[in-house]
Amino acid sequence: MHSSTSLYQRLKLLKTEMYFLMVCVQIITLNHTIVHLQKCYKKSIQDNIQSLQRLIRRRLAAVEVDRDIFYDVANKTAKQIAKLRRELFGEAVHSLTKSPMEDIAENSSIRGGNNYGIKGRIDGRTIDRTGQVHEA
Questions:
Q1: 3-46 helix and 50-89 helix, angle to the nearest 10 degrees
Q2: Which entry of 49, 78, 88, 113 is 20 to 30 Å from 15 by CA?
């Protein structure tokens, strides 16, 4: 492979991985917003403030749509990263995904780890969304 092509692909990989991390940060932020809105909604039910309940439900629906869009972007970006890593380094990287609702059900605390259903596996090692490597 020509060195300039290799350098171009490495830069493209770096750019794509940085983009992926930024998307993951947005997903984390939106998940925290969803948790906060759910708490506010429960409080509005306890206080029997129906107008506030409707407002929060609309906001919650909008934030969930935004998060689902970011999930799609993250999945597509993860596939691009896997392809580039395969081309550059010959690594077998696989994107493992699940639906957002399955993920939320499994990780109701929304803390640390691979909460967003996107991770890679290389040679028996797991790479989470933060890029940390864990032995499988």
A1: 160
A2: 113
Output b/e per residue, 98-107; b: 16+ Cβ within 10 A. eebeebbeeb
Tokens in use for 92?
């077998």
DSSP string, 49-74: -HHHHHHHHHHHHHHHHHHHHHHHHH
Full domain range(s) for residue 78: 3-135
Rg of the chain over Cα atoms, rounded to whole angstroms, equals: 19
- The structure tokens listed for 58 are 């609309």
- How far apart (Å, rounded) are the C-alpha atoms in residues 85 and 47? 53
Indicate the pTM of the whole model. 0.66
CA distance 110 to 103: 9
Q: At 80, which amino acid appears?
A: Q
Number of folded domains that form the chain: 1
